[in-house]
Design brief:
about 325 residues; alpha+beta; Arc Repressor Mutant, subunit A; Endonuclease, Chain A; three-stranded antiparallel sheet; 12 strands; about 50% helix; elongated
Length: about 325
Amino acid sequence: MLAAIGLDERHEAAYRALVAVGAADVADLARRLALGTQETERALRGLERHGLAARSSARPGRWVAAPPAVALGALLTRQRHELERAELAAALLAREYRAAAAEPAVHDLVEVVTGASAVAQRFLQLQLGAAEEVCALVTDNPVAVSAAENEAEEQAAARGVRYRVVMERAVLDLPRAFEGLTEALGRGERVRVVDRVPTKLVVADRALAMVPLTSHSAEPAALVVHASGLLELLAGLFESVWRAALPLRLNTDGAAEEVPDGPDATDLEVLSLLLAGLTDASVAKQLDLGLRTVQRRVKRLMELAGVTTRLQLGWHAHERGWVARERRD
């Protein structure tokens, strides 16, 4: 019980025995404790150093216990002061750590990963560590994805991590490409296609990015970029490619297909009525469409415009001239 103030079991037992008998010589106390006399004497001297026991002046050769309320109270007070000093030191260290983390050294903002296995492992860690979103640009010469990396992508998507992927159109000609795309679209990933992407790229939570360092070297290498202006530049690069790319979706046969480039006549009617202030339900009734059909078309329009809110959709519709087109009779 008294270990918190620095007493081990032997010291505590000796002190308790002295408190119980009031005073005792070494031999008597040794019998009570079932210890040797030398060990008992060492325990008494330890208690003396802690201020818990002293040699009796009235009865030579005997030891007496110090009053618990006074002696233990002093030890507790000293222990509290030491804990307060430790807490203060911990707070100062934490402040220094936060300051260092907030202003990382330049060489800590970028790391070079070399070797196929190391690059694959880092790519795996990016997906496993993502909490909100993974964005990727995929070229027409992708490295084969291992089973572990594919499983990591499935696990991340299952726990709610959003995926946005832009791939070169040539990727669609690769073996089993549509099979992989169908699986990705089936678990809710958003995929777009474009003629060419400027580089391979993966961005996780806008906090970490990975780009290839070399393209023709015998040994694969990649650059991992931490939070910095360079990371913001790479994230902006992805967003610009994303806006220019064409969405992919699943057709009625369950296969991936490109969405037509631009809204059709019904899309324009839906958009015009929404901009006029009608609700989704009113638009559905006006055009004799199902409510879910209207909502799907609005979602597709947002994907075509590369926006995430209906307010942004209205602005982009004006910018692209969609609302200037004539409505169907």
